[in-house]
Automatic annotation (TrEMBL):
Keywords (A to Z) from UniProt: Glycosidase, Hydrolase, Signal
Alphabetical list of SUPFAM superfamilies matching this protein: Arabinanase/levansucrase/invertase, Concanavalin A-like lectins/glucanases
One GO process term, biological-process aspect: sucrose catabolic process
Membrane-crossing segments per the record: none
Span of the signal peptide: 1-26
InterPro entries, per the entry: ConA-like_dom_sf, Glyco_hydro_32, Glyco_hydro_32_AS, Glyco_hydro_32_C, Glyco_hydro_32_N, Glyco_hydro_beta-prop_sf
Residue ranges occupied by any Glycosyl hydrolase family 32 C-terminal domain in the UniProt entry: 379-503
Protein name stated in the entry: Levanase
Length: 521
């Protein structure tokens, strides 16, 4: 049977190539239990961090931590998938297998336009992968090259290209490389800090500054991983954002990604401003996010592993385990006067809208205790894009008041996204979302400190079969979370609760769209 599937996939790929069909994929239909229909997941086996996100010649490449022999973490390989539209992915053969220097841990990829590496053999610039190899307690950096637009890869004969001189530290990993002022700059996670290196040729690396440990900066509840240093323009000035994933120690337990705002002079990142820990995403399931290199529209386009090390290896999926977030665009802007990172879903995701499945309120709705939108919709879909605008000012102030948008099924299972009027917090509640039994704390409610006090709260939600992405206030506060319902969640209702009887929730507008699966099922 698997031979038969292989042959039909080959024929499909052949037809796609022949007909130049952009939205044609090898993965014709994946719809096993909990299988995401909007988000990337591997057909089989274990996936974690996205690696080597890079655009080249019409294709976005995503590599990722992959174990091809099981659905838990094991000796790491680089899995590989490509897309031309950021929505429909095609899984390609494994790009990198472990070798004598070790397993293939996380890292990045660049297009070496100027042949600085000397590794270009053909007419097109080579793709260079820069990654950690791990063997026992040793972690070092290696590179590999592709001269055929990312279809085959060869290890550089001079590996490793960077080794740790401090033998007291085992954690020395996750190189993220970009080009600046005729040099390659690498940020690397070294236990509790980020070290910077530079190189002319991607082979020879010189240590620059470091950040995070002395003086102590940010959250340190766990090891630092997967840095990414990004430049933005704000008020006409260049500012830098350093992403640092941390595990454990996230704002809702386990894995999460913090960020720092500051300056970078080519050697040293320095934090500016006085702020407590900043989180790129407050939800339980957003980790190891990094951005694409060579993005054609110059966007800071990020994909993260939608999971948490607390329970990532025991999720109740069967053939596969692990999925990625939607591609998100990062930006740095001011909100309530403060510079803050914001994330919004890439505009390409809108191509999944089913134009026949559209509902919107035509006038404000006042809600005493609940309103069910399910019958208003005139369509039945568990893949939804919801845009709600809410008034957070009540007639009579009530700090105990809350509202939530809940997605539910006929078994009374539900996933809720809500707002707490007293604390100005957002929350994500999956306590009654179906299977939570595989991990004791999976059902705990997650909270996010909303970045603004604006009276108008905007919520944008993407609902998939087993995940939700929440973007509040245009993306200044985001939360991402998994859930595992017994049946699909196709109902939508809003609940409001206040101890003061005259209070009602004012929904200024509500738009609900049905989305199409990324598969042809
Ligand atoms: C890339 O650089 C190497 C080393 O300088 C050189 O041998 C090779 O010919 C160059 N490749 C191309 C296509 O120019
Ligand atoms: C690295 O740099 C050193 C000194 O600058 C030089 O001797 C060596 O050949 C370089 N190695 C590579 C692989 O470029
Ligand atoms: C999760 O976080 C909460 C709040 O910080 C804390 O009280 C609880 O002990 C944590 N649970 C675990 C398992 O770490
Ligand atoms: C909507 O679809 C779900 C899942 O396919 C199904 O369980 C439910 O009965 C449907 N609801 C209606 C009103 O047709």
């Amino acid at each position: 049977m698997s031979l038969h599937v292989d042959v039909s996939i080959r024929i499909l790929i052949f037809l796609c190539t022949l007909l130049f069909l952009k939205e044609c994929h090898a993965q014709n239909c994946l719809n096993d239990k909990y299988r995401p229909q909007l988000h990337y997941s591997p057909a089989k086996n274990w996936l974690n961090d996205p690696n080597g996100l890079v655009y080249l010649a019409g294709e976005y490449h995503m590599f990722y931590q992959y174990y091809p022999d099981g659905t838990v973490w094991g000796p790491m390989h680089w899995g590989h998938a490509i897309t031309s539209d950021l929505v429909h992915w095609e899984e390609l053969p494994i790009a990198l297998y472990p070798n004598a220097l070790g397993d293939i841990f996380s890292g990045s990829a660049v297009v070496d336009f100027k042949n600085t590496s000397g590794l270009q053999t053909g007419g097109d610039p080579p793709l260079i992968l820069i990654f950690t190899q791990a063997s026992g307690n040793t972690q070092l950096q290696s590179i590999a090259v592709s001269n055929d637009r990312g279809r085959s890869f060869g290890f550089y004969a001079g590996n490793p290209v960077l080794q740790n001189t401090d033998k007291t530290i085992n954690d020395f990993r996750d190189p993220k490389v970009f080009y600046m002022n005729d040099k390659w700059i690498m940020s690397l996670a070294v236990k509790n800090k980020i070290q910077m290196f530079s190189s002319n040729n991607l082979k020879n690396w010189t240590k620059l500054g470091e950040f995070g440990a002395v003086p102590l900066q940010g959250a340190h509840g766990g090891v630092w991983e997967c840095p990414d240093l990004l430049s933005f323009t704000l008020d006409g000035l260049k500012l830098w954002v350093l992403l640092v994933s941390i595990n454990p120690g996230g704002p809702n337990n386990g894995s999460a990604t913090q960020y720092f705002i500051g300056t970078f002079d080519g050697r040293q990142f320095r934090k500016t401003g006085i702020y407590q820990n900043l989180w790129m995403d407050w939800g339980p399931d957003n980790y190891a996010g990094v951005t694409f290199s060579n993005e054609p529209k110059n966007r800071k386009l990020l994909i993260a592993w939608m999971n948490n090390w607390d329970y990532g290896q025991v999720l109740p999926t069967v053939a596969w385990r692990g999925q990625m977030t939607l591609p998100r665009v990062l930006d740095l802007q001011r909100i309530d006067g403060k510079p803050r990172l914001l994330s919004t879903p890439a505009v390409e995701v809108e191509s999944l809208r089913n134009l026949a499945q559209f509902y919107e309120t035509t006038r404000p709705l006042w809600i005493r205790s609940r309103h069910d939108f399910t019958n208003d919709l005139q369509f039945n879909n568990s893949l939804l894009e919801v845009d709600g605008v809410f008034d957070t000012q009540l007639t009579i102030n009530d700090p105990s008041a809350t509202f939530s948008i809940c997605f539910y099924n006929g078994l009374a299972e539900e996933v809720c996204v809500g707002y707490n009027f007293g604390t100005n917090n957002l929350f994500f509640d999956r306590s009654n979302s179906g299977d939570t039994s595989f991990y004791g704390n999976f059902g705990q409610i997650s909270y996010a400190n909303r970045e603004t006090r604006n009276k108008i709260l905007q919520l944008k939600l993407y609902l998939d079969t087993s995940a939700i992405e929440i973007f509040a206030d245009g993306g200044y506060t985001t939360m991402t979370g998994l859930f595992f319902p017994t049946q699909l969640l196709t109902g939508v209702r809003v609940k409001f609760s206040s101890g003061i009887a005259v209070n009602q929730l004012k929904i200024l507008s509500m738009t609900i769209r049905g989305l199409k699966s990324i598969y042809n099922c």
